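Q: Got a minute? One more chain.
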Amino acid sequence: MEFILFIVCVCLFAISAVSLWKYMSLKHNIRHFSNELEKLKDSDYRQPVKVTDFDKDLAELAVKVNEHTDIQRQLGVEYEEKKKQLGTVISGISHDFRTPLTASLGYLQMIEKSSELSDKNAEYLAIAIQKNRYLKELSDEFFELTKIENSKKELQLEEVNISNILTEAVLEQHSWIAEKGISTDFDITDGIVIQADVHFLTRILNNLMSNAQKYTADSFGVTLKHDNDRVTLCVSNTLADSTSLNIDRVFEPFYRMDARTAGGSGLGLYVVKLLCDRLGWTVGAELNDDVFSVTILI
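A: Always. Here it is, folded:
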């Protein structure tokens, strides 16, 4: 009887030991599997998921994950290719669209200068010129955007005096500021030098100024500071109706504060975000009462 109990105890011990071993092995494989899945987040990681023992279920799971990963990678490659093709098509259409638009705008302006139109026809002509200019602006924006999105060209980084470039960009806004009677608050620290692509920087500033021109109600401000090895650029303006602005969407493509009345394509701040990302800068937007501001940390 004692011998039987001894055998039973030995068997139970053996079963417990095997179960514990399998449990520990399973835990080890799950941790290993989790680490392998984490590595797959990196688009450049190409190693298949592997398991360290011969558990059938884990092996089958690894096979399924690898198959799924291969499919997703292929879809990603196809998506990028289609995106590139679409960008090329849009760029081509925009380019072809710009030429007749420029010509037609020239002819309309010649008619406008002829002074041989009735008051009503002159009004219709002014509307046609306005719409033509808007279409040309759209085609220019699309053409530039597709070039930026599809460009794999290395950044042409160089030392630039952002204080001088920003001051020049602000001075170019004098005409519309004076015409609308806008109050201004400019605080630009002199002599700030940064590493930047001049073309990208100029486009960012032009888009910020253009956005301010479209939406400023009565006050426009620009500040440039250098603190703790960080350069901060802020462009702000008051809004006539801040309730129509969705601050969470201002960097989305084609978003406009009021699509029914606002001019432009809705791509200006989207391009600002795109270029800042390329340069490694951080850009954000805030709305305090009726003051809208875009801040860039360089």
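A: Strands lie at 157-161, 183-188, 193-197, 219-227, 230-238, 282-288, 291-297.
Q: Perfect, thanks.
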